[in-house]
């Protein structure tokens, strides 16, 4: 490996992408310091602890375990040296609002039988669908995710074309799934993972059918202690490699260039040779850089399609909630309207689809004895009006909906409650328009059409995180950290 010995690097933002980059750069010999605006590292994967309850505030699904294994293996370690995993059964439970209930389990034969109940022949069709999904995953990950291809000419290579030939690259996920399944509920089951990519069935490329391999074949896991344990483990690994961390230290300006940067913070200035920003890309360019040093203007960011924001309720309740699984989805029979209210006609949805996470079903350390810890996440459009009065009304609507469709009435049992919504995403994470995830994975915002890891205007400034390649989600941000470090090593190693 090329060496960065003698180089100093400041990583702005301690989200999973920034933590990943810091590990790789420190391992290459750089002197690395991570500065984080908030009181803890993790970025959107923050943790809320109060009154004996513990919640993962953001990501709560541990998917793609192979990516985490590969990350730790890059440093001669394994995830099991830092945390243990529980394979969830069921992976998740779905309540349809017409009264149907479906459990998706690790047993693919049971899942095929469920599909068969809705549509004759759908069990075998699922097997064919997952075979395609597996192929797309294996080819896509190795040749298009772990390898950064930021320029069009990177795709005009005969070997690249050969690898891409079998992939479902074009068309929408809606059209792709309809080619296999007729029943709308089966289509929903195959498409719900798009929420993790910040898209809808009609605006997400068919390539992302690879997520079904992640879901059905690789499984859904729970790291003991929650996602916060994974964040702690990556930070611990960084510490072992020499990374230093400063929390509660927001960056306010980035000046200079490679070999002579000045990073202004609220508690003093830093003078590194190189800078990596894990802060939101738009925030870095629009707020931390002067206009002549920005790669994209305000019109660019205004014209992008953003992933949803979210209305979140973190709840501590008395007693059990056994009707709910660790991961529970509540879906309207027709969910097009919900996606329209996010992407086409932005407003608070009247009949929302939403997700409930109940970690206390698996982990008794996240709630006091005799209590349950859970949160409810409703995807909503970013940049909506977000007032205390609206939150009050929507909180009551959601709790009534939960009672009506899951046989679980939480009202009257709540002993702890915290809310999080659009304004909080904007204030805590500097996210554009209060999006919960960043740039959506539309066809025009996938792969080389996402902003690059290298600054277009400032030598020695790099970007990492969900707005870059490969995109949104914890595994993708881990890989983004590796891609950014490789760019730094290529330029300055």
TrEMBL record:
**Domain Amine oxidase intervals:** 16-489
Q: Which InterPro entries match?
A: Amino_oxidase, Carotenoid/retinoid_OxRdtase, FAD/NAD-bd_sf
Instruction: List the PANTHER family hit by this protein, alphabetically.
Output: PHYTOENE DESATURASE
Keyword field: Carotenoid biosynthesis, Oxidoreductase
Any single biological process term in GO: carotenoid biosynthetic process
Q: In which pathway does it act?
A: Carotenoid biosynthesis
Q: Which SUPFAM superfamilies match?
A: FAD/NAD(P)-binding domain
Identification of the protein by name: Phytoene desaturase
Keyword Oxidoreductase in annotation: yes
**Gene3D superfamilies registered for this protein in UniProt:** FAD/NAD(P)-binding domain
Instruction: Keyword check for Ion transport, yes or no.
Output: no
Instruction: Output the Gene Ontology terms for molecular function.
Output: oxidoreductase activity
């Amino acid at each position: 490996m090329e060496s960065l010995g003698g180089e100093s690097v400041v990583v702005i933002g301690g989200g999973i992408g920034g933590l990943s980059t810091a590990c790789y750069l420190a391992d290459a010999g750089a002197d690395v310091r991570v500065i984080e605006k908030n009181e803890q590292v993790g970025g959107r994967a923050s943790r809320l602890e109060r009154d004996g309850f513990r919640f993962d505030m953001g990501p709560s699904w541990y998917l793609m375990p192979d990516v985490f294994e590969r990350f730790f293996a890059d440093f001669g370690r394994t995830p099991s040296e830092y945390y243990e995993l529980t394979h969830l059964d069921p992976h998740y439970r779905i309540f349809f609002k017409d009264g149907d209930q479906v459990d998706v389990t690790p047993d693919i034969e049971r899942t095929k039988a469920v599909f068969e109940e809705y549509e004759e022949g759908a069990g075998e069709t699922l097997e064919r669908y997952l075979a395609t999904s597996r192929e797309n995953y294996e080819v896509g990950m190795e040749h298009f995710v772990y390898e950064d291809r930021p320029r069009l000419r990177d795709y005009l290579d005969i070997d690249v074309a050969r690898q891409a030939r079998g992939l479902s690259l074009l068309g929408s996920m809606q059209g792709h799934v309809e080619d296999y399944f007729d029943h709308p509920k089966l289509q929903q089951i195959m498409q719900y993972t798009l929420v993790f990519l910040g898209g809808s069935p009609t605006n997400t490329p068919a390539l992302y059918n690879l997520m079904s391999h992640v879901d059905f074949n690789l499984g859904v896991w729970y790291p003991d202690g929650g996602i916060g344990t994974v964040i702690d483990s990556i930070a611990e690994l960084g510490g072992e490699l020499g990374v230093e961390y400063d929390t509660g230290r927001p960056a306010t300006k980035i000046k200079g260039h490679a070999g002579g940067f000045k990073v202004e913070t609220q508690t003093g200035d830093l003078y590194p040779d190189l800078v990596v920003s894990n802060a939101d890309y738009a925030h870095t360019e629009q707020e931390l850089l002067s206009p002549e040093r920005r790669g994209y203007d305000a019109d660019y960011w205004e014209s992008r399609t953003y992933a949803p924001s979210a209305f979140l309720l973190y709840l501590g309740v008395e007693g059990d909630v056994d009707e709910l699984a660790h991961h529970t989805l509540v879906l309207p029979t027709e969910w097009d309207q919900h996606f329209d209210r996010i992407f086409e006609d932005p407003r608070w949805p009247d009949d929302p689809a939403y997700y409930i996470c109940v970690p206390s079903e698996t982990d008794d350390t996240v709630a006091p004895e005799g209590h349950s810890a859970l949160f409810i996440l409703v995807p909503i459009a970013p940049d909506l009006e977000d007032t205390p009065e609206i939150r009050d009304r929507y909180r009551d609507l959601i709790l009534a909906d939960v009672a009506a469709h899951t046989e679980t009435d939480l009202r009257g049992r709540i002993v702890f409650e915290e809310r999080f919504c659009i304004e909080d995403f904007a204030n805590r994470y500097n996210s554009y328009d209060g999006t919960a995830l960043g740039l959506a994975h539309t066809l025009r915002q996938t792969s080389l059409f996402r902003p690059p890891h290298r600054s277009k205007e400032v030598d020695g400034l790099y970007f990492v995180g969900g707005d870059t390649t490969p995109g949104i989600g914890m595994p993708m941000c881990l890989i983004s950290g590796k891609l950014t470090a490789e760019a730094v090593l290529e330029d300055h190693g």
